[in-house]
Amino acid sequence: MDADTLLRLLQIVDSQLPLGGFAHSFGLEAYAPEDLTPEEVAQLASVHVVQGSLRCDLAACALARLSCPREEPLARLCGQLTAWKPVRGPREASLQMGRRLRQLAESALGIPCPPLAHPHVAVVMGCLSSALGVSDRLALAALAHTSLVGLLAAATRCLRLGPQRAQAILRELAGTVLATVDDVLRDPEEALWTATPVWDIRAHQQAFLTTRLFLS
Fold first, then answer.
1. Dihedral in degrees, nearest 10, Cα atoms 48, 51, 53, 56
2. How do residues 55-81 score in pLDDT, each as one tens digit?
3. Cα separation of 19 and 168, whole Å?
4. Helix (H) and strand (E) counts for the chain?
5. In this structure, what DSSP letter does residue 28 have?
6. How far is it, in rounded angstroms, from Cα 141 to Cα 78?
7. How far apart are CA 140 and CA 61, in angstroms?
């Protein structure tokens, strides 16, 4: 991969890209009343990678890379991902960020992306990384990294977690991330699932908090 491609990949996964992700905790805020320790936050983040919505997003990204630029299988994939996101807040956040990423790719980043009626951010990321020509493993690792950065940044704002410990957790999870990426790539179709019912319940409860920092 040449330096220009690397810079473009870094740009689309940069947490400073204005997708609106800062407004979402994806249900993590609902854990705030439990006063989680940093170790418990790390466990939650690990579960998010291994069997949560991030794993499902990685599978969707891999499948999008196989389907792009064919619109029909991409639309079908977006429908499947919508079904695997049962809670409205995180589901709408994924769609909002996907629409914004597609708009930015078209208007500012110069990376082609097929038109999608319901563009989940993981599917758009798959299309963009495919257009850049980066490897499957690198594309999925980059998506996992930027998703975890956003989640841990939200944790520093609503949970008992400092920025330094958040960075340590990010590093500690690197092996888990790469192992999950490799597992997903062995069979992306079979990897398109989630199994975190408690997190889903918390994500639903988050919308009914008396006071909250995040939209989801």
1. 140
2. 999 999 999 999 999 999 999 999 999
3. 25
4. 10, 0
5. G
6. 20
7. 7
